[in-house]
Amino acid sequence: MFLIVLIIYIVLLALVCLHVLYETRSSTKGIAYLLLCIFIPVFGMLFYLAFGINYWRKELYTKKTGQDQALLQELKRNSLAYTRASVNPQDIPDNDNAELATMLIKDLHSPLTRHNTLKLLLNGEEKFPELLLAIEKAKHHIHIEYYIYECDEIGTAIIDLLIRKASEGVHVRFIYDDFGSPSIKKKIEKRMREVGIEIYPFYKVHFYFLANRINYRNHRKIVVIDGQTGFVGGINVSDKYINNKKGQLYWRDTHLRIDGPGVYYLQYLFLTDWNFCCPTKLNPESLYFKQDTPITGDTLVQVVGSGPDSAQPLVLFSILQAIYLAKREILITTPYLIPGDNIIDALRIAASSGLSVKLLVPGKSDSRLVNGASKANYNDLLQAGVEIYLYQKGFIHAKTLVADGKLSVLGTANMDYRSFELNFEVNAIIYDKPFSENLRHIFFDDLAHASKIDAEDWYKRPFYITLSERIARLFSPCL
């Protein structure tokens, strides 16, 4: 009997391993799944079958991609067509990052827009008052999309305001991630629907521990108001982002308000996500893409989004290109650093070429496994001359990049496999020296609350610690 069970198990293991080899695009990720299946009997295969196979991606996201393309064609013909005529990559100051803009403009994947006014928002203390003020001024529509939305004090305050605006005739549409925001459907979804707010989960999850679909999360944080004001960044809706309670963990994060045509692509992403998860479809009407907004600024902005439905991982490509184009300095803040060899190698090459490369990461992560996988990358980076700083004041959750004090990247994407391959993400790319210098100063202000890793001391750490980190890194593509 034992021999029969063993033979069946070996056959199943062989079949699963073959599936990994043929269906996993990333060789690093494939090796991680193979090791998991082979060295952790039964559980490894179950984990891969539950989370490693793109069951839903092929069936559902192909349909979403088709819908998105149809909507994108409409945007090309209507609201966004003017961007090609009004701005081009050669308009970028000093022309240092024209290649990045060109790559993202191709086929109007992400239009380069000018005449934007930007406001950098640090932590929940700055973001939420600004968001409430913008919602208060809404006249036509409010579109909201969040990964995590807590029904706590600030979450309830926003919902109360949305309910009042809906009663005034403003169209309110709300998308939440079913995995990241479980409290919404338990507490307030019914109340919102009763006043006419349209609210839907991006991708409904019925059985959390068995559902492959929780592997694909909508990690975007998007707010668009009247087609002319938008918010994007790392801050979800939760009281923990507001550092106003004694004894609570200090939460350091960064968000962005955009007024101007840079909002159009945020709106496009919202519409594509809405048309995927909601029975009522939205068309690219002019009311959603306001072109008569008074010009108050002249900042160049591109918004880039990607996810499991993308033909190309544009968020990843844009970050790689920003690193490649840098000539003097690269400053990166990220809560998770398990991006894969492409980003690690690009940073090592930059540092070895004489650029100043600085990384700011949490001193303590909210995940021991992720923290271990991140630390396994530090050796190679330190050897190349990359400076790594551990934030000590609290937990740093910001996702930013500043290159040469001229280019900024700010958004929802972490420097990890999940953000580049599995999550729906969105970043804003800002081609503006004053804005980038401001973000650069903020980076160095944060360094005042961080400790720099001493390379020599780092290399001398005990074997059992480095071994555990390297084991964790083997499974980093699965995290």
What key phrases describe this protein's structure?
479 residues, alpha/beta, Endonuclease, Chain A, 3 domains, 15-stranded mixed beta sheet, two-stranded parallel ribbon
What does this structure look like?
- The protein has three domains: 2-53; 58-91 and 116-297, Endonuclease, Chain A; 314-478, 2-Layer Sandwich (Endonuclease, Chain A), CATH 3.30.870.
- Helices cover 45% and strands 19% of the residues.
- It is of the alpha/beta class and 479 residues long.
- The model is unreliable at 208-213 (pLDDT under 50).
- The protein contains 19 helices and 19 strands.
- A hairpin with a 3-residue loop joins strand 15 (400-403) and strand 16.
- The strands form three sheets. It has a 15-stranded mixed sheet, with helices on both faces. A two-stranded parallel ribbon has the order 7-14.
- Helix 6 runs antiparallel to helix 12.
- The protein has helices at 2-23, 27-39, 43-52, 55-77, 82-86, 98-105, 123-136, 153-167, 182-187, 189-194, 263-277, 314-325, 341-352, 368-375, 378-384, 417-422, 433-447, 455-459, 463-474, and strands at 113-122, 141-146, 171-176, 198-201, 222-225, 229-233, 251-252, 254-259, 299-306, 329-333, 337-338, 356-362, 387-391, 395-396, 400-403, 407-411, 415-416, 425-431, 450-452.
